[in-house]
Task: inverse folding
């Protein structure tokens, strides 16, 4: 449950002046991202889903953010960031190498697939990747750089590109076409989420139901 | 504390209005006036038309801008209430053919003058409390220092209308010159505000130069006409043109709102964010008042 912005759902703005046709098209495409892998193999995709669950655990009472599917879509379309760390290969190759490396490390440590490990084992393995304390060779790609600059970056940016995350943090979504008019700090535009505090949840919930 | 300051403002303005009315009553009997009563009544009515337009513009402008400021300071509701009652008093004045001053109207106008002055103080405080204080950035983006004076100016024009109906004229005082010069000052003030805001807008449309150049010319001619009768004709032409400039400006600002993303369909954003719709008609109001002053000047000669 959203305790900080009770009753706030950014998607209620869909048919208000806050959104226009372009906004609706972009958000619709993002919500409709195919849930089956198109670039990754099914095995790689399951591993990625398991990793995402540990990096960005999600509460069951919110619409699920399909992180693995969003990353797969990014790789399928080969939509790159426009820059990359020089120690990493391009994103498609980096993800392939990284997922293979994590799978190999699970095999080496537990003689099992990453998806078969329990939560503590997964966390220990991912910590080792983060710290670069692995025995295997990832074809010259430093695991700790992959973890920080590719794995974390893609998971976190995809998470906060999703309307579920916007509702969670009280973000108004695209500032187009409406924009903002109250620019001072701690000033709220009438179409921004209301933040709860001091037991005024019921009032805030009513206010958040009528944003636009 | 705020309640006290509001009550204090109301009391002070009531006392001032009462004093003005008392002076008027004392002076009323029998002094001959160089200007006949029908002429003065007509001029007063015209001044009230101008003050009504200006008070209406101040009402719309303060309503829009203070809503944008979310009435963060509770006193931000005051200019709405005060300009609304000044608008009512001025409309009442335009319709009043009896030619007698009214204590109620005079009170309303004095309250408008005082509220404008107090508002200027508040806006000055708003600029100074921001980081950087008195700087170009804060003059552009903090509370506009010149804006509340539009309400004062509406009150001055409306108060002048009451004076014209009342005794100062009978006492032998010639109001035409004073009114003409005050209007010239008002034009220069409004033009400075436009210069500041249009500079902020980088004069991206060549028409943005008009309210910075035309009003000072009209003001110079109007003041010139108070000493040189030959300038009355050009002043009249300039002021007539200026009434059109104010309306044209509102049309340009409506176009400016349309040019923002989403245009008028996105009005709840763009009326706040775009160029202020009620600002340019202030020039129309001052031009109408200036034309009334010219008529008075003509009769006084």
Result:
């Amino acid at each position: 449950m959203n305790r900080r912005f009770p009753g706030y759902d950014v998607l209620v703005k869909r048919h208000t002046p806050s959104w226009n046709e372009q906004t609706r098209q972009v958000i619709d495409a993002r919500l409709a991202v195919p849930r089956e892998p198109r670039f990754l193999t099914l095995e790689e995709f399951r591993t990625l889903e398991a990793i995402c669950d540990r990096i960005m655990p999600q509460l069951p009472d919110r619409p699920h953010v399909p992180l693995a599917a969003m990353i797969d879509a990014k790789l399928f379309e080969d939509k790159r960031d426009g820059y990359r760390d020089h120690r990493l290969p391009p994103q498609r190759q980096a993800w392939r190498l990284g997922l293979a490396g994590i799978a190999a490390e699970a095999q080496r440590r537990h003689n099992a697939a990453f998806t078969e490990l329990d939560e503590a084992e997964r966390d220990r393995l991912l910590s080792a990747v983060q710290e670069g304390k692995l025995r295997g060779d990832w074809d010259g790609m430093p695991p700790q750089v992959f973890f920080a600059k590719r794995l974390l970056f893609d998971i976190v940016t995809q998470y906060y590109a999703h309307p579920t995350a916007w509702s969670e943090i009280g973000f108004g979504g695209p500032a187009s076409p409406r924009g903002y008019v109250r620019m001072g700090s701690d000033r709220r535009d009438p179409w921004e989420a209301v933040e709860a505090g001091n037991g005024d949840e019921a009032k805030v919930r009513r206010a958040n139901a009528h944003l636009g | 504390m705020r309640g006290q300051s509001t009550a204090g403002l109301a009391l002070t303005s009531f006392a001032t209005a009462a004093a003005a009315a008392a002076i008027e009553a004392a002076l009323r009997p029998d002094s001959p006036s160089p200007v006949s009563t029908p002429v003065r009544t007509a001029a007063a009515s015209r001044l009230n038309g101008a003050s009504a337009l200006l008070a209406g513009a101040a009402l719309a402008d303060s309503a829009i801008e203070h809503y944008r400021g979310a009435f963060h300071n509770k006193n931000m509701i005051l200019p709405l209430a005060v300009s609304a009652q000044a608008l009512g008093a001025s409309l009442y004045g335009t319709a009043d053919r009896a030619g007698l001053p009214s204590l109620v109207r005079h009170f309303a106008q004095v309250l408008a003058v005082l509220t404008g002055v107090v508002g200027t103080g508040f806006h000055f405080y708003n600029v100074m409390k921001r980081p950087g204080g008195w700087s170009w950035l804060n003059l552009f983006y903090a509370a506009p220092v010149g804006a509340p004076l539009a309400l004062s100016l509406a009150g001055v024009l409306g108060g002048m209308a009451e004076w014209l109906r009342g005794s100062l004229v009978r006492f032998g005082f010639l109001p035409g010159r004073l009114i003409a010069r005050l209007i010239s000052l008002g034009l220069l003030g409004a033009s400075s505000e436009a210069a500041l805001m249009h500079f902020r807008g980088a004069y991206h449309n060549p028409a943005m130069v008009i309210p910075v150049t035309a009003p000072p010319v009209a003001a110079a001619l109007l003041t010139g006409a108070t000493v040189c009768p030959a300038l009355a004709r050009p002043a009249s032409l300039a002021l007539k043109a200026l009434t059109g400039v104010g309306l044209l400006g509102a049309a340009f600002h409506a176009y400016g709102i349309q040019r923002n993303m989403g245009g008028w369909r996105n009005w709840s954003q763009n009326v706040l964010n775009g160029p202020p719709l009620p600002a340019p008609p202030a020039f129309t109001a001052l031009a109408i008042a200036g034309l009334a002053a010219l008529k008075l000047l003509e009769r006084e000669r």
About this structure: Residues 174-301 of chain B form one domain.
